[in-house]
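Hi support team,

I submitted a single chain yesterday and got back a structure, but I'm not sure I'm reading the token output correctly. Could someone confirm the output below corresponds to the sequence I sent? I've pasted both exactly as they appear in my results page.

Thanks,
R.
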Amino acid sequence: MAAPGAGDPVDDAKSGKAPFAQRIDPTREKLTPAQLQFMRQVQLAQWQKTLPQRRTRNIVTGLGIGALVLAIYGYTFYSVSQERFLDELEDEAKAARARALARASGS
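Hi R., thanks for writing in. Yes, this is the structure output for that exact sequence:
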């Protein structure tokens, strides 16, 4: 007789419980090459099953980040084109040069 909770499929089917997979650590437990190959196949199948959803999510995330970058880039150009303080500084510098030349030539 199996120990209670051992997961005997016949006993579990009678009691209404479904057997479930147990987590194992392949580095600690000695597994046969066939078991390791089966684990790789299952992992590959799970990975391929979630691949389209992950790809879609990655594309949406990339487009969102790209849109944010373009928005920041566009806003930067827009705000810099509205700034007139450099023009005012250049006008003041021209006036100061003109005054300096007038003083130099008038002396």
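A quick pointer for reading it: The two ends are 118 Å apart (CA to CA). Let us know if anything else looks off.

Best,
Support desk
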